[in-house]
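Per reviewer request, we include the raw input and output of the structure prediction for the construct analysed in the revised manuscript.
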Amino acid sequence: MKHDAELQELTSQITEASAFLHNASNLLSERVVGQSQVLERVFIALLVNGHILLEGVPGLAKTLIVRTFASALNLAFQRIQFTPDMLPADLVGTMVYNPKEMEFYPRKGPVFANIILADEINRSPAKVQSALLEAMQERQVTIGDRTFTLPEPFMVLATQNPIEHEGTYLLPEAQLDRFMMKVMVDYPSYDEELEIMQRSARTCLFPDVSSVVEKSEIQKAQELIDRMYADTRVQRYIVDLVTASRNPAEAGLSSLEEMIEYGASPRASIFLLLAAKAHAFLQRRAYITPEDVKAVAFDVMRHRIRPTYEAEADNVHPEDCIRQILGHVQVP
């Protein structure tokens, strides 16, 4: 384990470097009522270069959250509305012929921004959804025979509607696995909805949001997260959770054997560790604990566990499986 003096020094640096998150959170709370857990997950993904899939019914401020988030962080923002007739070139760009110079040149698409809002991503077919794969994983885009690096930071926040299935397409498993977290956006409470109504029932538009964060502050936070301490026992706990979803019987969860068609991929282990570090950073700690892992486990694993047909018939959801795994796997 790191020396106490080193941990104290790192904690001090984290406390100082995390101040920008407080400013950004205050600004977001002025525009977005409630949804504190969603906002926290967005900050976690930003800190470790992750992507988020936001799922919720229309009208829950998903687009407002992302747009305000990008404005507060002074990052280039692009909203891309996915439609059934969309083509991959509409997303990443294409080669355009210049008759004057008699040669082709690349015209970059809207994916060349820091924050991408892929609105209703499940409304486009797989060939368009897969166009994001290279951008999300490699942080680069190939147009013709040329490859272009995407700006840093780069983050995709995609939304999908869980109740409307007509004219939608299921996301390919490879695409789902690229998302660090799948965050469920729920209805506001009674008091929150009252406040939303009072704030929004007006004819004038919301004023522009002033940026309160510099890119250098984000980069500094990311560097500190890389230096955070993760005890070997906590790392083994993460792997135990993930492998239990793949081999529940070996983990002593025989009841889940017939409930899970396939479990979480190795990316789940990577993202659980990264998300736990970012969660600890938000708490201004220089080390992670099993509680940090538990705090992000549902969001990291829910889209990586597929229930069997029998489980779906019995109304068993991935969250039910994750809850049993967390309750069974021994905490260090």
